[in-house]
Design goal:
This protein is α+β, with helices and mostly antiparallel strands. It is 34% helix and 39% strand.
Amino acid sequence: MISIIFSSFANKDSALRIGKLLLDKKLIACGNVIQMESQYYWKGKFHEEEEYGAYFKTTLVKKNEAIKFIKKNHPYEIPSITSKDVVVNNEYKAWMDSFLMDQI
């Protein structure tokens, strides 16, 4: 199993910046950034705007540290950070472990 952490960002640069920092600290093995349209209420006002979502893939061991890092460095006042533990093919898991192992 691995953990996939998802968070939304106001722009592509901030999503990529957080992903690069997580990679450099070896808290994740991979990040994917996607463009999306978001709708929400914030401080009593309706918003409909472009955001970027980031999927960060990590091991179960590194999940909590990665989430803590995202929360501390996220540009939003109240970021949405979700995670799900999922089964992944053995070859991908072995690649992740080989990348992250020296930091456990």
